[in-house]
Specification:
The chain has 297 residues and is an all-alpha fold. Strand 1 and strand 2 form a beta hairpin. The longest helix is centred in the N-terminal third of the chain and has 42 residues. The model has no long low-confidence stretch (mean pLDDT 85).
Length: 297
């Protein structure tokens, strides 16, 4: 009797938690549409999404966010391309190669990396990475007329900071997935004559692909949603997302201007938040569908 009561209570608690989570997602979605949709009608979908000029305080204001959207896409994509291979190789080292002593040291460092606040990443990037990027920029564009120097606060700096920031997520999730691969799968591969490296890359990683994709999904979410660190190292100008251009992403756009925005300007910033929200939902949906296909295989 007591056991049945405990089970019913636990089921009820789990159900309530699930309902609260679903309600929170629905409430956030409804709120973003209520706040972000009106400005679409006032500015125009094409002018907002495909406009190249952002001058909300001008006499004739413009609210084009095309370059801002492209900066978010390019920055996130390049950070994932740079960070995921490094994170995956680190996870392979922790799960398959490192001994207990070295593994504990590296694993502790990864956990510490995850605990560092984003503003610290931005501060370190601004003080160390930006000056290096500025020296590189001067060497590349020396003698080139018309180039606007950014002091190192550019797209490259933002990509590097984002790549470092997604590492803890990718490493921790990938390590757990690789460790969950059954030992008999590794033993079978080695018994067939495969080397240790062949076993890792031909048997272990494919078997853990679903979990690794989960880590990538979480990493993409972290990269898309980061604001403070990117605001400190990217320069904050609305430009085409070229390597040495100062850029602004969707998140930094909201952070930079929400404090003083009023009227239509403020409503457009909510629309920017809606675009970011939809973009994250679409990316997560695509990656989760890919993960489900891997699970089905």
């Amino acid at each position: 009797m007591k056991k049945a009561f405990i089970e019913k209570t636990a089921n009820l608690i789990f159900l309530v938690c699930a309902v609260v989570a679903i309600f929170a997602v629905c409430a956030i979605t409804l709120y973003m549409f209520m706040k972000g949709a009106p400005a679409l009608g006032e500015v125009g979908v094409s002018d907002l999404l495909f406009g190249k000029v952002w001058k909300p305080t001008a006499d004739s204001p413009s609210y084009g966010i095309l370059f801002i959207v492209l900066s978010s896409i390019v920055g996130t994509g390049m950070a994932v391309l740079l960070g995921v291979p490094i994170g995956l190789m680190t996870a392979v080292f922790l799960s398959e190669i490192a001994g207990k002593r070295i593994g504990s040291v590296v694993g502790g460092a990864v956990e510490l990396l995850a605990a560092i606040p984003s503003v610290i990443y931005g501060l370190v990037g601004m003080m160390l990475l930006n000056p290096l990027m500025y020296q590189l920029e001067k060497k590349i564009y020396e003698g080139v007329e018309g180039h606007q120097y950014t002091g190192g606060a550019n797209m490259l700096s933002a990509i590097m900071v984002l790549a470092i920031m997604i590492l803890p997520t990718v490493i921790s999730v990938s390590t757990s997935s690789l460790k969950a691969v059954p030992d008999h799968l590794k033993a079978a591969s080695l018994a067939l004559g495969a080397t240790r490296e062949q076993t890792i890359f031909k048997a272990v990683i494919p078997a853990a692909k679903s979990g690794i994709l989960t880590g990538v999904v979480l990493g993409v979410g972290r990269a898309l949603g980061e604001a403070m660190a990117i605001n400190m190292v990217a320069g904050g100008a609305v430009n085409l997302p070229l390597p040495f251009n100062s850029v602004r992403t969707l998140t930094t756009q909201i952070v930079s201007e929400m404090g003083y925005a009023q009227g239509l300007h403020r409503r457009v910033l909510f629309t920017v938040g809606l675009v970011l929200y939809l973009f994250i939902m679409i990316v997560n949906f695509i990656l989760l569908r890919a993960r489900k296909k891997e699970v089905a295989k």
